[in-house]
Amino acid sequence: MIAPSVIGFLAAILGTICWVPQVVKTLRSREVKDLSLGTNVLVLATVALWLIYGLLLGDWPLILANVFSVTCVGTIVAAKLIWGRE
């Protein structure tokens, strides 16, 4: 039987690596016109709340995954705010 923490870490890894290609593409191209600020702000709020929830529970898979997600989505939101006005 697989330990629940192993499942949690696998889910965390798979659920967060999906942001890497978008962050890399955004930073390389500085092209943000097709990114929705509203959607990304909502996703940022969601992962921030999951991070807080993980911290309250002391659940490391949730904490690590959402620190990574907040960083990635926060980068996308910042890029949209900075380069979206050019």
TrEMBL record:
Q: Does the keyword DNA-binding apply?
A: no
Protein keywords: Membrane, Transmembrane, Transmembrane helix
Location in the cell: Membrane
**Predominant location category:** membrane
Q: Where are the transmembrane segments?
A: 6-24, 36-56, 62-83
| Keyword set includes Membrane | yes
Record-linked InterPro entries: PQ-loop_rpt
Membrane topology per the entry is: Multi-pass membrane protein
GO CC annotation:
membrane
Which protein is depicted?
MtN3 and saliva related transmembrane protein
